[in-house]
Design brief:
The complex is a heterodimer of chains A (515) and B (272).
Chain A lengths: L1 H29 L20 H11 L12 H4 L47 H4 L1 H5 L8 H10 L2 H10 L6 H13 L7 H6 L8 H13 L14 E2 L14 H4 L8 E2 L21 H11 L11 E2 L2 E2 L5 H12 L4 H5 L32 H22 L3 H16 L8 H23 L3 H22 L6 E6 L2 H4 L2 E5 L17 E6 L2
Antiparallel strand pairs in A: 1-2, 3-4, 5-6, 5-7
Chain B lengths: L1 H18 L1 E12 L2 E2 L7 E2 L5 E17 L5 E3 L6 E5 L7 E8 L1 E3 L1 E6 L3 H4 L20 E2 L4 E10 L13 E7 L1 E4 L2 E5 L2 E6 L5 E3 L4 E9 L1 H4 L12 E2 L5 H8 L3 E7 L2 H11 L1
Parallel strand pairs in B: 1-17, 12-18
Antiparallel strand pairs in B: 1-2, 1-7, 3-4, 4-5, 4-6, 4-9, 4-11, 8-16, 9-15, 10-11, 11-12, 13-14, 17-19
The chains are: A mainly alpha (515), B alpha+beta (272).
């Protein structure tokens, strides 16, 4: 009898151990600490990651049901391709296009953060989501309502059951699931990381020189492999008219006036515009600010006023090298990884075959009359959208974009070669992202922020397929889109600028596309 | 056989132990000055002579301890020691403490608000009235994580209207627990200590005892700092909140014992 129970106990212990080990292994595959990173801050023992938990978190992250009028999801202001910031927005937009106080912060490597938001007012990742969910300018909903809406669906009780063992939907499970998904967002595959881990990649000479300058002049705040000291500093931005006091509003300490969290510098190319209020559109402007634009006020960080000089002296050459180094922190694996994407894109089975193709160098011309007819319709709508933006008519632009979707969705793919099809799908992924944004709002200013990239991707398609039978002029206006520069296409040599009413001089022909 | 004996002994010990405790029901009676609080319809005047009425009044009471004359105390178990009292919800004004050990108590003390430990606890520790997705939804600051301790809202004709203020509404939301780690904030946690005076609370086995605690909301506005509603129609997480917390620190008073909840409401009706 006694021996039997010991035997059963041992079996039980073994089973428990196996299931524990299995869970640890599963957790590891969902969150693996990169070898060049320190230990994470988040306590995973209190919220162990599971495949089902992460999956639930992802569905929640992208569900607009979480907002008051069911129009805005977390993913609306935290877009993957924009490093989980809001693409093209100085200040983020919430429901009813309400403007928030600040530029949405990138979401990456959150497992290493100990407080959240530009002012660090929230001290735990599990509690962070409550802030955007309830902020009147963001999702404007309250938590009990959200939970009730989720309970009433057919799908969520099942997803909660899978993730947590029963259909109960409560705050703890809801918030922990969101955390689980966000914790998997680890950006650690930039060129810099790969070089650091000796994975066969080395930084170029100018990148290395940039790194040396960076270490000397920037790393006191942008420190470590996260490129932030996770602290709060006043970096000398002249306060806007309705001053945002930043950290002060949380601590009420004089020394925290105008101080904001040091942001990470990973994926900078994707996270423009910069600063808590998105005031700088380009990295050049950011460097210029640190060199010569700093405003000296009472709480300015001491590191920005050394040797009797306000700001950080940077020569042209140093700026160029710094920019080269900062580019090594971009992580395309992270920005394009399907595991974080709203909809896993149906992958063309032949896509891999062409993954090393230089699309500029291959001939993709089409002779299909059905494809040409689609492009002809698309061109008419494009002109309508452009004219609507010139006339500052957001309703018209949005309506024209809506009509454009079916044309591209129904394009005759049977008339394409497999190479053409792969190229089309690649470009259309980018194109539809911009189209959705133009369609989502009736605010022409916001539409303009997406029109430049929309034009760029459409031009790529027209140029590759050679569908246009007249010359096309490809314009570029460097002042557009927060000075990131915006493109537009025209069939005349002289054309009105769709980005600005009164900036006639901005806009030069970059290329003429001959039939 | 021996095992069964031990089991029996320990079981009966547990039973005996369970019996040597009673129940204490606290009735929170919200007042304004000497009058029973009436939401929306009743007009009040503060020490500055400003008229106002109250549309919402609610607060947390936590970490309840019963004191004995020898200095020892009975602390209500931590997880059962959080209560949200809302004027608009009569049920919430009755707080039941089970398993109070038999004995003679001379006073009670509790925290007005939520202690810093629970303010920083992980989400699994926030149930019931602390559930940010439930009862605590309007008693929690999401942007500066922490519970609101005391909340009073209402209207006053003295409030000037402007572009940002379209209705004459005042809002006093007082919280802030001191922060954690690198984040230091104001600490508005207050503790109130009430003596039963000449009376004693004698907790008997299997008996329910009733006690009234009066909460005088006029102390939010009147006290060491007399608050002008016209000048400060909205006080939340700013430095001025400390003045209100200092004021309301004395808003509770011991209102006597009662034989039952009925007798409490009878006394209340008699008072009106």
């Amino acid at each position: 009898m006694k021996r039997n129970s010991i035997f059963f106990f041992l079996i039980f212990a073994l089973l428990a151990f196996i299931s524990f080990a299995f869970q640890v292994k599963e957790g590891e595959s969902l969150f693996l600490k990169p070898s060049n990173f320190p230990e994470p801050v988040y306590d995973f023992t209190k919220n162990p990651l599971t495949t089902e938990g992460v999956a639930l978190g992802k569905v929640l992250f992208y569900d607009a049901l979480l907002s008051k009028d069911n129009t805005v999801s977390c993913g609306s202001c935290h877009q993957q391709t924009a490093g989980f910031t809001q693409h093209g927005h100085v200040l983020s937009h919430g429901i009813n296009d309400a403007l928030t106080k600040r530029n949405s912060m990138p979401l990456a490597n959150l497992a290493w953060f100990k407080d959240f938001g530009w002012d660090g007012g929230v001290h735990h990742l599990d509690l962070f989501a409550v802030s955007p969910l309830t902020n009147p300018a963001e999702m404007d909903e309250n938590l009990p309502n959200i939970l009730e809406k989720l309970r009433k669906t057919n799908t969520y009780p099942v997803l909660f059951q899978k993730a947590f063992g029963s259909e109960e939907i409560n705050s703890e499970r809801f918030l922990k699931a969101l955390s689980q998904f966000m914790l998997t967002m680890v950006s650690a595959n930039s060129k810099y990381d790969k070089a650091m881990r000796n994975e066969g990649v080395v930084l170029s000479e100018s990148e290395e020189q940039g790194e040396a300058i960076f270490k000397q002049k920037c790393a006191s705040c942008h420190s470590g492999v996260l490129f932030t000291d996770l602290k709060f500093h006043n970096n000398g931005l002249s306060p806007a008219s309705k001053a945002d006091l930043g950290r002060y509003d949380v601590t009420l300490l004089e020394e925290d006036r105008l101080a904001f969290k040091t942001p990470s510098l990973r994926n900078l190319d994707a996270t423009a515009p910069y600063m808590h209020d998105g005031r700088f559109g380009t990295l050049e402007e950011v460097l210029e600010h640190y060199d010569a634009g700093i405003e000296n006020n009472a709480t300015l960080d001491p590191s920005l006023k050394q040797n009797n000089r306000i700001g950080i002296p940077l020569s042209m050459d140093e700026k160029t090298k710094l920019l080269a180094f900062l580019k090594t922190l971009n992580d395309d694996d992270f920005l394009r990884n399907d595991r974080y994407a709203e909809v896993s894109q149906a992958k063309d089975p032949e896509a891999d075959k062409y993954k090393d193709v230089d699309w500029e160098k291959v001939d993709l011309q089409t002779n299909s009359p059905t494809i040409k007819a689609s492009f002809k319709k698309a061109w008419i709508l494009y002109t309508e959208i452009k004219n609507a933006l010139i006339a500052e008519n957001g309703d018209k632009a949005s309506a024209a974009i809506e009509s454009l979707f079916p044309i591209f969705n129904d394009i005759d793919k049977t008339a394409m070669t497999s190479m053409q099809r792969v190229f089309f799908q690649n470009v259309f992924n980018d194109l539809s992202f911009e189209m959705e944004h133009i369609a989502d709002t009736k605010d022409y200013k916001h539409q303009r922020d997406h029109f430049g990239d929309f034009s760029k991707h459409l031009f790529r398609l027209i140029k590759a397929f050679k569908t246009h039978d007249k010359p096309l002029y490809y314009f570029h206006c460097p002042n557009a889109m927060f000075k990131r520069g915006g493109y537009w296409i025209s069939d005349t040599e002289i054309d009105k600028n769709p980005f600005f009413k009164n900036d006639k001089d901005c806009g030069k022909i970059k290329m003429v596309l001959l039939p | 056989m021996k095992n069964i004996l031990i089991l029996l002994v320990s079981f009966s010990y547990l039973m005996l132990n369970a019996q040597s405790s009673g129940t204490l029901t606290l009735q929170f009676d919200n007042m304004v000055g000497n009058e029973d609080m009436v939401l929306n319809t009743k007009n009040y005047k503060n020490a500055m002579g400003e008229d106002f009425n109250i549309s919402l009044f609610q607060y947390y009471v936590s970490n309840i301890r019963l004191m004995k004359s020898d200095g020892s105390e009975y602390a209500v178990p931590q997880n059962e020691s959080y209560f949200l009292i809302r004027e608009q919800d009569p049920k919430s004004q009755t707080v039941t403490l089970n398993n109070v050990p038999k004995g003679k108590y001379t006073g009670i003390r509790f925290v007005i608000g939520i202690d810093s430990l629970r303010n920083t606890a992980d989400i699994s520790q926030r149930k019931g009235c602390l559930d940010v997705g439930g009862e605590a939804k309007d008693m929690y600051w999401a942007w500066n994580s922490g519970y609101i301790f005391v909340k009073m809202e209402g209207t006053s004709p003295v409030i000037e209207l402007n572009a940002d203020r379209k209705k004459p509404i005042f809002m006093y939301h007082i919280g802030l627990f001191g922060g954690m780690g690198d984040k230091k904030t104001l600490n508005n946690i207050k503790e109130t200590k009430l003596s039963f005076g000449s009376k004693k609370l004698k907790v008997k086995d299997n008996t329910t005892h009733y006690m009234v605690i009066k909460t005088d909301a006029s102390h939010i506005l009147n006290g060491s700092t007399n608050i002008s509603i016209a000048k400060n129609p909205s006080i939340m997480a700013g430095p001025f909140s400390a003045k209100i917390a200092d004021n309301y620190n004395v808003m509770f008073s011991f209102g006597g014992f009662a034989k039952s909840l009925n007798t409490i409401s009878e006394t209340k009706t008699a008072m009106k």
